[in-house]
Each structure stands twice: as structure tokens, then as C-alpha cells.
Design goal:
This protein has 340 residues and is an alpha/beta fold. It has 14 helices and ten strands. Strand 4, helix 2 and strand 5 form a beta-alpha-beta unit.
Length: 340
């Protein structure tokens, strides 16, 4: 598989990375087989996080024997130095390694800086001095914070949502990262499952210089599709652009990306799925979403108290309660039509 330089880290990573959020949902044997197949297929870049339940452990179990051949990025949500070192120690143990290639601050509300009274950035530098961390990164869903991180000169990599649905402002962020030689890691390259065409998503990102996507992979079929795309990369031709333009037209305006930062909902609503369920039902098999269980979950939207938690914690400035109500109305109409 072709490799590319990840900014000023100088790390040569596979042009397709492995996003390890979805392996939380599969068993130990399945995840080991999937991760080994990814490695054997040429993927050498694996991204996970302290908070992704057993994702780190699964990577450690599957890939510790080839540790010297892979690049591991993980994340900490710590807001102080003590918690950072606690998280780092646990991540090292889970991953069965004595160093992390890229240690990322996980979606902070502001950019951690030296002398900001948290000691967080100083702890990152100290971890690097001790050889526990090779490079320092940051992840974010907020464009102004991401741009500030790039311009600060403090971070070696930035991880940010980037896909064929991205805006011109997002493309300017990529340009700024390239000019600063900050490695750009693209999360949510399929926009949380809303982009149904992997080839068009792949072609768009491959046509955008300097971006390394971490595809969220759970099934062998998904992995094999990306490995096949790497072997024979599709061109960003007129047909692919037509698919992308259709996606952009359908998803224009405010929509939920499924990042999950609004959770947990005090009313127990599964916001990250419920707030975009009509898109998911149109772009994949709808049957799993019209079971009695899912109908009950959608009806729980009526329990929304309007507390504002989702608006305050979500990074995209969405009117989430309004989105939920609109999705419920569309969902009821669809289910009612199926029952008629």
C-alpha cells in the first residue's frame, strides 16, 4: 500500500488508516482477525482512544507482535497533568507497548497551551521527553479551535472531521495545516455513515493533498472494500463528482454527524442515531430501524425536556431538539406508510 508523510512527524503512514471506534462492537476473536488482516493488507496506521472502551486492548492483543512496524495514535480527554499521566499509563498497558507514536488531546474546548494553568501541555512535553510519546497531536470538531491549534505551532498533528461533504472553510483548514507542516488526520470520512458511496468518499479525499483518512471499520467486507480501493484508486471524475454533489444537495444545511459529544442525554434519547435516522434509513437498509425496539427509542424523543444539554455539548451549534422533533415526524410518517 502507498504511504505518505504525516506532516512534520516524518512518519510514513499508509494512505488509508484504520479508525478503531467500531471494533468496540465486535468480539475479541473477530477484532483480532480484522486488525491482522488490515496489517497484512498494508495498513500501518491505527487510531484509537482512551475512552473507546476496549478498543486499545484489542489493538494491543492483535498487533503487539508487530509493534515496530505500525504507527499508533491514541487520545486522552484529560484536563490536567495528573489525569493525563494516569490515562497514558493505562493506554500503554492496554496497547502492550512502551510508547505511543501520536498522543492526542481529545476534543478540548480550547487549545491547551504552555502556562495556561492546567499543566496539560507541559505534561505532554514531559511525556515526550521521557520517550513515552513520540509526537503531540490534538483532535477537534470545532473549526476555530482546530485552526488555532494549527497556527499555534504547538501540535504535530490535527485530527478533524473531513469528507466529501466538507465546506470551503474546512478545505482552508487543510491548506493551513499543509503550510504549517501539521499532519492532517481525517476522521468521519464517511460522515458517520451518511455517505453511502465509499468510492466517492475515497476519491474525494485521495484528490485532496495532505489528508490521511482513518476509515471506521467493523466488518471484513468494509475492510476489503478499502483495501481494493487502495489497489485500484478511483478517479475523481465526472461520475464521482455527480455522486458527491447529490450527497451535498441532500444533506445541505444543519445535520447531525453522529459524533456523540451530546451524549448522554438526560432523557435517555439515543441522539447520535435518532437525530439523523431518516438519512440513515434512506442510505442503507431501513429494516433494522423499524423494529419495535427502535420505534420505542424514537418515541422517547417525546420525553425531551428541552434542558439544552445537547446544544451546549455538541460541537456543531445545532438546534438538536428541533432536529429530533423533525426526525421523529419523518420517522412516524415512514413507519405509518409501511404499516398502511
Amino acid at each position: 500500500m502507498d504511504k505518505t508523510r504525516l506532516g512534520r512527524t516524518g512518519l510514513m503512514v499508509s494512505r488509508s488508516g484504520f479508525g478503531a471506534i467500531p471494533i468496540q462492537r465486535i468480539g475479541a476473536e473477530e477484532s483480532t482477525a480484522l486488525l491482522r488482516r488490515a496489517y497484512e493488507g498494508g495498513i500501518n496506521f491505527f487510531d484509537t482512544a482512551h475512552g473507546y472502551t476496549d478498543s486499545e486492548e484489542k489493538i494491543g492483543r492483535a498487533l503487539s507482535s508487530v509493534r515496530e512496524n505500525i504507527v499508533i495514535a491514541t487520545k486522552t480527554p484529560a484536563e490536567d497533568s495528573k489525569t493525563l499521566f494516569e490515562d497514558l499509563e493505562l493506554s500503554l498497558l492496554r496497547l502492550k507497548t512502551d510508547y505511543i507514536d501520536i498522543y492526542q488531546v481529545h476534543n478540548p474546548e480550547t487549545v491547551p497551551r504552555p502556562d495556561d494553568d492546567t499543566g496539560l501541555y507541559e505534561a505532554l512535553v514531559e511525556a515526550k521527553r521521557r520517550g513515552l510519546v513520540r509526537f503531540i497531536g490534538i483532535t477537534n470538531h470545532r473549526l476555530p479551535v482546530a485552526l488555532e491549534a494549527v497556527e499555534s505551532g504547538l501540535y504535530d498533528t490535527l485530527q478533524f472531521p473531513f469528507s466529501s461533504l466538507s465546506s470551503e472553510a474546512d478545505l482552508e483548514l487543510v491548506k493551513a495545516a499543509r503550510e504549517a507542516d501539521v499532519g492532517f488526520i481525517a476522521m468521519k470520512a464517511l460522515s458517520g455513515g451518511l455517505i453511502a458511496s465509499a468510492p466517492s468518499a475515497f476519491a474525494f479525499i485521495r484528490g485532496t493533498e495532505y489528508v490521511v483518512p482513518i476509515w471506521g471499520i467493523q466488518k471484513p467486507s468494509e475492510l476489503e472494500e478499502f483495501l481494493a480501493l487502495e489497489k485500484d484508486p478511483p478517479a475523481l471524475d465526472e461520475a464521482m463528482r455527480g455522486i458527491i454533489e447529490k450527497d451535498r444537495a441532500e444533506l445541505a444545511g444543519s445535520f447531525c454527524r453522529g459524533c456523540g459529544y451530546c451524549l448522554p442525554c438526560p432523557a435517555g434519547i439515543e441522539i447520535s442515531t435518532a437525530a439523523r435516522i431518516s438519512f440513515l434509513m434512506r442510505r442503507s437498509r431501513f429494516e433494522p430501524f423499524i423494529t419495535p425496539e427502535w420505534q420505542a427509542k424514537m418515541e422517547s424523543i417525546e420525553d425531551c425536556s428541552g434542558c439544552g444539554h445537547c446544544r451546549e455539548c455538541g460541537p456543531y451549534e445545532l438546534d438538536t431538539p428541533r432536529l429530533l422533533k423533525a426526525q421523529l415526524a419523518e420517522y412516524r410518517e415512514f413507519v405509518g406508510g409501511r404499516s398502511a
